[in-house]
Amino acid sequence: MSKAIFITVRTGSTRLPKKCLLRIKGKRTIKYLVERVKKSKLKDIIVLCTSTLKEDDILCEIAIQQGIEYHRGSVKDKLMRWLGATEKFKVNFFITADGDDLFCEPELIDLAFKQYEKSRADFIEGVNIPTGAFSYGIKTEALKKVCEIKGTNDTEMMWTYFKDTNLFRCEELRNIPLFYKRPEIRMTLDYPEDLQFFKRIINDLSKRKKYFNLKDIISYLDEHPEVIKINQHMQEIFLANQRKKAKLIIKEGKI
């Protein structure tokens, strides 16, 4: 296998307990994400990456039901969890799709795959788009290097090891349609307000069509700006929390 999508998810969450298993219109939130990333045309494989904890057995069962692969690894260290998945499935480059990001956009995923094929970047980041529409693309060789130099197993804010060490070729995702450049829109499931946001969009748009893409979602939000405001105020809290957790800890003598 060469190009993969890794769905990174655990049932453990504090602000919104078991958020990946909550239901919207009778469907678990994680299934919305799985169904969306399946629409990527350039992927070779989808792997649900979760922990070895007993409580995450249900996620492996969901992966089997959805016809995708799964890999179980470290509870806290998602970098090592990803590394295990790359070795298990012989992956050279992968896109991360957090379990929180129900509306992760397959069109952007495929843009990242195309960009990697041309540039062989170590790290590709989505910038100035809705939070949750796309996160990162990572080359396996770069991931291996990061796992060698990192000095902690708490790697939730793993991007700092790629962007702040000056060891890797980092790029912003290119050729993003101008219509998608809406950073004021928050599309990630972390707080109760986020759940209300997703429920409103899914309830309304599912009346119009079975599948709706990012363009459909943004068009709907432009028609209903009040929906953007449901969780928009949580974004600064979310970003502040990320900044607080982002610590670059390197093993002595590794750089």
Describe it:
The chain is 40% helix and 15% strand. Helix 3 (78-89) packs across helix 5 and helix 7 (192-205) runs antiparallel to helix 9 (225-232). The protein has one domain (3-245): Spore Coat Polysaccharide Biosynthesis Protein SpsA, Chain A (Alpha-Beta Complex). Strand 4, helix 2 (57-66) and strand 5 form a beta-alpha-beta unit. The protein has helices at residues 29-37, 57-66, 78-89, 106-119, 140-149, 159-163, 192-205, 214-223, 225-232, 235-245, and strands at 3-8, 23-24, 27-28, 45-51, 69-73, 93-98, 123-125, 136-139, 170-172. It is globular, with a radius of gyration of 17 Å. A 7-stranded mixed β-sheet has the order 5-4-1-6-8-7-9, with helices on both faces. It contains 10 helices and 9 strands. The chain has 255 residues and is α/β, with parallel strands linked by helices.
Strand content: 5-15%
The parts where pLDDT drops under 50 for at least 5 residues are none
Number of domains: 1
Radius of gyration: 17 Å
CATH C-level label: Alpha Beta
CATH topology group = Spore Coat Polysaccharide Biosynthesis Protein SpsA, Chain A
Counted by DSSP, the helix tally is 10
CATH architecture grouping: Alpha-Beta Complex
Helix share, percent: 40-55%
The SSE string, one letter per element, is EEEHEHEHEHEEHHEHHHH
Largest β-sheet summary: 7 strands, mixed
Q: What is the count of β-strands?
A: 9
CATH superfamily name? Spore Coat Polysaccharide Biosynthesis Protein SpsA, Chain A
Q: Shape, please?
A: globular
Measure the end-to-end span: 31 Å
* Strand-pairing-aware structural class: alpha/beta
How would you describe the oligomerization state of the chains in this entry?
A: single chain
Biggest sheet, spatial arrangement of strands: 5-4-1-6-8-7-9
Query: If you average the pLDDT, what whole number results?
Result: 95
